[in-house]
Design goal:
Blueprint lengths: L3 E9 L29 E2 L1 H14 L28 H6 L1 E2 L5 E2 L3 E3 L2 E10 L2 E6 L1 H5 L12 E4 L8 E4 L2 E7 L11 H5 L1 E3 L2 H10 L2 E8 L6 E11 L5 E8 L19 H13 L1 H4 L12 E4 L8
Parallel strand pairs: 7-11, 8-10
Antiparallel strand pairs: 1-14, 1-15, 2-6, 3-4, 5-14, 6-7, 6-14, 8-11, 9-10, 12-13
Helix pairs in contact: 1-6
Length: 304
């Protein structure tokens, strides 16, 4: 029996910063994670999984706080419970050293950009490209590098100005169909070539400047100015979660969640965690107005 593949779309309510873990020389001091082949920003699956685990534990009414590294006095943490009926450990995995370990039934992919917001003289538009849509099962012919195809809501006079970039409008018949993406974004969608998509995205990331404050003077600390980038607000991303069938696994000789709903419990636990991304965010700079990510298509009660 094949694993179940859950598909999720998300829209950034704030800029999203998932950093590379340090400073570097370049356009900004603190850059965000990118795909090595395309150089496009992404949210790593590890960031989604770890954050989702913590939020899912919060939703369990305090039953399994230790399974997300919470709820125990400092120095007294004993690790994951590792029980076969624990929805947190079974869904996200656990490790108890040489005693026992389990990879978890939910496996997360990276969240990739689908529609990227860009300011234009025709108003805000959301840019995408054929290779991104192809991964979603949508086939579109690729425009030439200097051309675009636009949706009906993009009003132009034959050219589309994207700041420093002027592109010829090839056709205005671009009609992507994605059920969970807001219609306002689809009406203002723009299709560019795969090559141009990377340039447009990296030239229109949200770049901010911050400075550390000296607590004694209340003024900016000398030499503490730094810049960082983020995926901008209203970007639409897509990721998958593969849920394995618990009947093919055992924890301490017992089938995971056998008496507690099996796959249904895994999906409920997963989506209970994803629901809190809208309020508590993902990535860094959460105290500076970044991180909130709304999952599209989720209904109340942990069902999709």
């Amino acid at each position: 029996m094949l694993p179940e593949v859950l598909k999720y779309f998300a829209i950034a309510l704030d800029p999203i910063h998932v950093g590379t873990g340090g400073y570097r020389l370049g356009r900004v001091d603190m850059s965000i994670v990118r795909e090595p082949g395309t150089n496009l920003p992404k949210i790593p699956g590890t960031s989604i999984a770890g954050t989702c685990r913590t939020y899912a534990a919060m939703q369990e009414n305090g039953k399994f706080p230790q399974c997300a590294g919470q709820g125990q006095p400092q120095g007294a943490y004993q690790g994951h419970c590792g029980k076969h009926n624990c929805p947190i450990c079974v869904t996200f995995g656990f490790s108890k050293g040489s005693e026992a370990s389990f990879q978890g039934l939910a496996q997360f992919s990276d969240a990739r950009l689908v529609f990227f917001p860009v300011h234009s003289l025709a108003g805000p538009v959301w840019v995408t490209c054929p290779s991104v849509l192809r991964d979603l099962g949508i086939t579109e012919s690729e425009p030439q590098d200097g051309q675009v195809r636009v949706a009906s809501g993009v009003k132009t006079s034959g050219k589309l100005n994207l700041g420093w970039l002027m592109l010829d409008v090839d056709r205005n018949d671009f009609t992507p169909t994605l059920s969970n993406v807001p219609s306002e974004i689809l009406k203002h969608a723009v299709l560019v070539s795969d090559k141009m998509f990377g340039h447009i995205v990296n030239d229109n990331l949200d770049v901010r400047t911050s400075v550390s404050i000296d607590p004694q003077t209340g003024a900016a600390a000398e030499g503490a100015l730094y810049t960082y980038e983020a995926i901008p607000r209203t970007s639409v991303l897509y990721f998958e979660v593969v849920v394995s069938d618990p009947r093919y696994y055992q924890i301490a000789g017992q089938e995971p969640l056998k008496d507690n709903g099996g796959n249904a419990t895994v999906k409920t636990t997963l989506e209970n965690g994803l629901r809190l991304f809208e309020f508590l965010g993902v990535g860094g700079m959460n105290t500076r107005g970044m991180g909130r990510l709304r999952m599209l298509g989720l209904k109340a009660g942990g069902t999709k």
